[in-house]
Amino acid sequence: MPISRPLLLAGLPVAAASLLAASLLAPSPAGAAERSVRIGYQKYGNFLLLKQHGGLDARLKPLGFTAAWAEFPSGPPILEAVRAGAIDVGQTGDAPPIFAQAGRTDLVYVAAEPPAPAGEAILVPKDSAIASLAGLKGKRVALNKGSNVHFLLVKALEKAGIAYGDITPVFLAPADARAAFERGAVDAWAIWDPYLAAAQAATGARTLATGEGLVGNIQFYLAAAGFAKAEPNVVAAIVDAVRDVDDWEAAHPDEAAAELAEAVRLPKSVVAVALARQAHGVAPLTPEVTAGQQAEADAFLQLRLIPKPLDVGAAVWKPGT
């Protein structure tokens, strides 16, 4: 059986995945009637629904474009692929764009979803002796480096009065982190939905903290800055299509849960829990959202997790400029 493109990409290191995405999603040959806008997505969320519903090409066709999709396991490799020129548009949580911008990725924020703080959490095994965030001191915590839960961990430790250096972060992708969590190789796990809902259902894990009262957990839609400048109508069409599918999901949660459950190979009941913690309303970034991203970037700088100060506002898309 041939290996699918998504499986190929999901199983490779970041740099290799970016190079493979570039070869799989090469632009149409010169003289072709249509060009491809290359979109990086994860196996969950609005981009997955948009891909499955197939409505994007109808919006892109009058602009001379079609959509070419590439699946990635998380946000950081999506933005690494943007940096490498392998994709044009992607969706990630709040932390990956900060690390990417610090790494000189030329990107712009084009839209955001409302905060969904209950959609990420720090878990401990059901029989763990850790009873509160304070109990994380000296412990090993699994997380996906540079992902949305990285900031959750930072703020949770701050709330508990624990220095970031007083825990041992263990950087693992979600599947590897769950395996480490279940065999006791780590003491806690910071993770997002639907992996969060799946772990809660399957392992009975206890929740030390969600993002509520700590972080926003916002999903962002981003584009390569050069592409957004050259093709603003294409970017706007993608945002409009995402808004439509987000509205559909909000109005049809049961159908959306069934559709996503089949794609991610999780029980519908698990996906329904994750969707209930999701917010709806895709829109341009507000000053408040931009300020929140700036505060997150400043916090990462203070901890020396990024090497230089960032101006998040300078990376917010301003069509026509």
Automatic annotation (TrEMBL):
<protein>
    <recommendedName>
        <fullName>Putative aliphatic sulfonates-binding protein</fullName>
    </recommendedName>
</protein>
<dbReference type="Pfam" id="PF09084">
    <property type="entry name" value="NMT1"/>
</dbReference>
<feature type="signal peptide">
    <location>
        <begin position="1"/>
        <end position="32"/>
    </location>
</feature>
<comment type="function">
    <text>Part of a binding-protein-dependent transport system for aliphatic sulfonates. Putative binding protein.</text>
</comment>
<keyword id="KW-0813">Transport</keyword>
<dbReference type="InterPro" id="IPR001638">
    <property type="entry name" value="Solute-binding_3/MltF_N"/>
</dbReference>
<dbReference type="InterPro" id="IPR006311">
    <property type="entry name" value="TAT_signal"/>
</dbReference>
<dbReference type="GO" id="GO:0016020">
    <property type="term" value="C:membrane"/>
</dbReference>
<keyword id="KW-0732">Signal</keyword>
<dbReference type="InterPro" id="IPR015168">
    <property type="entry name" value="SsuA/THI5"/>
</dbReference>
<dbReference type="GO" id="GO:0042626">
    <property type="term" value="F:ATPase-coupled transmembrane transporter activity"/>
</dbReference>
<feature type="domain" description="Solute-binding protein family 3/N-terminal">
    <location>
        <begin position="36"/>
        <end position="252"/>
    </location>
</feature>
<comment type="similarity">
    <text>Belongs to the bacterial solute-binding protein SsuA/TauA family.</text>
</comment>
<dbReference type="InterPro" id="IPR010067">
    <property type="entry name" value="ABC_SsuA_sub-bd"/>
</dbReference>
